[in-house]
Design a protein that fits this description.
alpha+beta, two-stranded antiparallel ribbon, 6 helices
Length: 224
Amino acid sequence: MPCLTKKMSFEAIKNMQKFHKDLEEIFTKNGMDFKENLGRRNIVMSHAQEKFFTEALRKKFANVINDGRTGQPDIVIEGVEGGVREIECKLTTRHRSGAISFQSDYETLLKKKTLDYLYVIASDDFDKFAVLYFDGLTVDDFRPLSSGARGKVAMYKHKGFKKCHILMGNVDSLNQINIEKLKAKISDNSVPPYLKKKARKSLDYWTNTPEKFKIGLETAPQSA
């Protein structure tokens, strides 16, 4: 089970939004646009993610460490069920194509064997979010390392999402959505035979293809 709750996630997100607003004002004052390069924006905000989620976790756990040094876990919680829980934090934004990338450092996975991941998906304007906690991901939940990937590997979503706890936003199965639509079309007597034939072909695809997901973002409530 995840160490985080929805309420804790809302609290951390609100603090991240305040920090984001402060940085926007500083950039604007100096003739720059903080949101011009979202990849760079997310890198700057990654430390804030670690800090504010650590603060939220400290309200529940006595010993939560946010080291921040290279090679160290982003967040370490000691004394969870008699052991230690390590959490890797990732902040990302939807690509222009609409896709969302869930990446990890391959060497870290290989070394640790199993890790919890806290992915925060933020909108371009940093006003809507999804917070997804993945419990005990392993190297098998990610694609193999490819040349030119700079040590990064992408998650097999149909594997990883079996270990996902949704703390903010929503996740829907595109397979189930399309299967239901296609079955309705096939059973509809007003649909011409040639369209039913196409629907059956599509149904076969969505029934047998690895599960794909639609991720929706939400606004954090004013009071967590």
